[in-house]
Amino acid sequence: MLSQAEVEATRLTHPFIDPGHLLLAVIATDAELAKVLAMNDVLPERVRDALRTIYTDFAVSDEDMALKSQLPLSRQAKAAIEHSVEAVHPVLHPGAGMITPARLLLGVLDQSNGVVAGILASFGVDRMRLIDQVTESLTD
After folding, report:
1. Which of 13, 16, 75, 86 measures 20 to 30 Å from 61, CA to CA?
2. Cα–Cα dist 106/124, whole Å
3. Can you give the pTM of this predicted structure?
């Protein structure tokens, strides 16, 4: 999933991987979670548009992107990943410590004051309700 997040960051010419790129990676790699997000109008192109707007000043040229061998994780992306590993959740308990798309998504959604929380709010999405829907989808 991190390689997919890097693809998304590179596509947007962002010089780092942020939780928004992790969200796009989850959408690209897990059809069930993508469906839950789509039901809330959290669609890849809308997320990309929001990230373009937020990170306008951070975008770099294609030439500069080509020089980067690997994009670094932002502090918020590292926190989301750490939370996804550490999270103990009844539905997610099997495979504790593994980063699955669901764990990563919940780690991203758990950041109440991060970029993704702001994007969701701008879409009119209740973050806590979305967390509940993601969790419910895992028990079906």
Report:
1. 75
2. 18
3. 0.87
| 3-state SS record for 14-75 | CCCECHHHHHHHHHHHCHHHHHHHHHCCCCHHHHHHHHHHHCHHHCCCHHHHHHCCCCCECH
CATH topology of domain 2-139: Double Clp-N motif (1.10.1780)
> Tokens standing for 95?
């495979």
- Greatest CA span in the chain, whole angstroms? 46
Work out whether the CA dihedral 81, 85, 88, 89 comes out positive or negative. positive
User: Looking at this protein, which amino acid is placed at residue 65?
Assistant: M
C-beta separation of 33 from 54 below 8 A: no
Query: How far from each other are the two terminal CA atoms of the chain, in whole angstroms?
Result: 23
* pLDDT of amino acid 127: 96
The tokens describing 121, both together, are 């709010």
Domain boundary assignment for the chain: 2-139
Averaged pLDDT score across all residues of the chain: 87
Determine if residue 127 is left, alpha or beta; phi over 0 gives left, psi from -120 to 50 gives alpha, anything else beta.
alpha
User: Do residues 137 and 32 touch, judged by C-beta distance below 8 A?
Assistant: yes
The amino acid sitting at 36 is: V
